Amino acid sequence: MEHLPEALLLMVPGIGSLKQRRLVEYFGDAYAAWNAKGAELAQSHILNEKEVAGILSLRETLDPAELEKSWSRQGIGICGIDDPDYPALLRNIFDPPAVLFYRGRMTGDSLNLAVVGSRRGTPYGRNVARSFSEKLARFGVTVVSGAARGIDTAAHEGALTAGASTVAILGCGVDVAYPVENARLLDKIADSGCLISEYPPGTPPLPGQFPARNRIIAGMSVGVLVVEAAEKSGALITADFALNENREVYAIPGSVFSNTSRGVHRLIQQGARLIGGADELLEELGLSPFAAQARQPQSLSQDEKKVLAELSESEPIGLDELVMRLDMTASQLAVVLLQLEMSGCVEKFSGNRYGRVAKE
Fold it and tell me: In this structure, are residues 212 and 196 in contact, taking their beta carbons and an 8 Å threshold?
């Protein structure tokens, strides 16, 4: 595994993504940091004594080759931030994970929408999450959620019902079934989509890890749909991350008598887009049933014309380069590119690259 040294550093208690990045910068690469002498680690002033001891102890007890074989047998992979399959939008957030552990198939160029909500979702909320996710999936949207009880579970189930892939971001290792009752669902997601975590395999589901994973849910998505959320809810944390990264926040209104709708109503008061139906959300994403019909160049929007003008018929261009060229966010650009692709104006290539379709 190319990124095994980065993974080994993350297995040391106390070393998270920030300290790992600092170690890599200080020593030049993760392999050098992992193999550094104790005195060299102490002189870096990045780790405390306990963390230095943790690296030295783990090096003595762990066989990296055996660990790599074990993870491979379980279908666990590691994706680095510079890999083509790393989620393109996530790469552009303030604090992107240096590596992601995954089970399933990573797709860095899919159009992702987060669907999140209360673990105590009502029958109404679960029905909305399931039906919306199924329809979104049928239009090519990849539903991203956290595999928690309630709304998250319903969102994943809806996408799977459509026969589509879905992505679950976990606050534990990708080999840990949490919640336990979702073990079968997690296996289904891994079979057709992907389970992703920034935490090494075997990491238990500790409470402090879930707010951090919410930034990944929001960061890899063009927007966040909040179905139900109490006034203090992890779904609201995800929405805050989305707003901080200039992503859209959509909200489903609920009953004024329901505690699980109070957080959603507060989002609407603060400017979240109220969504009254799945078709309305598809329209917001530029994916109405009519969007798939081929359009003539003169009917394209100004954003579509601007993006199309930057694309070549001979040399595909990566999403990151387009973000640098255009005055658009990565999330806005991803939506426009999907609209152009569905219109037959743009072709998507491997490595998250896009090219203009030649027209006679």
Answer: no
